Amino acid sequence: MARANKCPPWAFVFVVLCLLLPLACYSASSQTQGSVGGRSPKGLLRKKRNLCVDGTYEYNGRECCLCGAGLKLKNHCVLNKDDGNCTQCDANTYNSHPNFKQSCEPCTSCDHPNANLQIDEPCTTARNTKCKCKEDHYCINAGLDSSESCILCIPCTVCGAAGIKVACTATNNTVCHEEKNKIATAVGIVIGVFLLILSIVGLIVYLKIKRKQHSFTTPETLPLKDLQPHLVEIVEVVGWKDMKTIALSTKIPRTAIEFCERDNPRDTQQQTLQLLETWIESQGRNASQNLIESLQKNRKNSKAEKVIRILSGDSAA
């Protein structure tokens, strides 16, 4: 009975092997993971170090990382694309996009005289100043979106007794109700009929006169002339009202006309001179012929004849 209860030696060996085998597998696995894990952070750091968040640019045949918004380039990269040096933009300057410029743009000022502007968003190193209109003014640069800054504002229209139909906004002028008056409407109809009859009579008289005399000089018969030496004389002949009509008919922007008025308040001669110079630039070498033709189209034949005499060298004009 004592021999039957004795444990065989091979059973003891089997139990020891069963206990040691999982430990050996775990140790091998840990070493493998440790070696992989040991290389991985270095690889990740290397990749991260060479990663250019804002993109790259080429310099002397190699790629360098761009400086981010709000920064400017101090030194180009030498060995690696990310070992260049960027520095913060100075006060009152900015760069709004990734770049490799060695300077920053100056911030826009909202203090221009007669522009009626105030600061909406102040300038930062990564964003230019954004201007908006002062109270009771609206911006005249059409097509604005919320990211653009206004350049010029003008006062909103003040409605009289008719009242406001649509209030003035940052980009649109006030719309007033139309005044409706039955007596005024009746008077307007009578005046309209009278003017119609008068126009018909005037047209008949005009056609008769035109048949008798059609001898004034046409622009095509006048050689191309330089208007610059005669600007002052032409301004005195044409005048602000007709110069403004000519500019509008030849698609000079209304904002350019308004700038002439604001630059020279209460001085119509200077307003006319500035607008004439702007108009001459838009017309090029045919400016002299186009000016005479525009005056004639607007039935300003006497002024057209005076301009012709000025350009022909007749001092009696």
UniProtKB/TrEMBL annotation:
GO cellular component: CD95 death-inducing signaling complex; external side of plasma membrane; membrane raft
Pfam families associated with the record: Death, TNFR_c6
Entry-linked InterPro entries: DEATH-like_dom_sf, Death_dom, TNFR/NGFR_Cys_rich_reg
PROSITE patterns membership: DEATH_DOMAIN, TNFR_NGFR_2
Residues that span the membrane, as ranges: 183-207
An annotated GO BP: regulation of stress-activated MAPK cascade
Renumbered ranges of TNFR-Cys repeats: 88-131, 132-176
Domain TNFR-Cys per the UniProt entry, residue ranges: 88-131, 132-176
GO molecular-function term, one example from the UniProt record: tumor necrosis factor receptor activity
Signal peptide: 1-27
Disulphides: 89-104
Keywords for the protein's UniProt record, in alphabetical order: Apoptosis, Disulfide bond, Glycoprotein, Membrane, Receptor, Repeat, Signal, Transmembrane, Transmembrane helix
Residue span(s) of domain Death: 242-311
Name of the protein this chain belongs to: Tumor necrosis factor receptor superfamily member 6
Source taxonomy: Eukaryota, Metazoa, Chordata, Craniata, Vertebrata
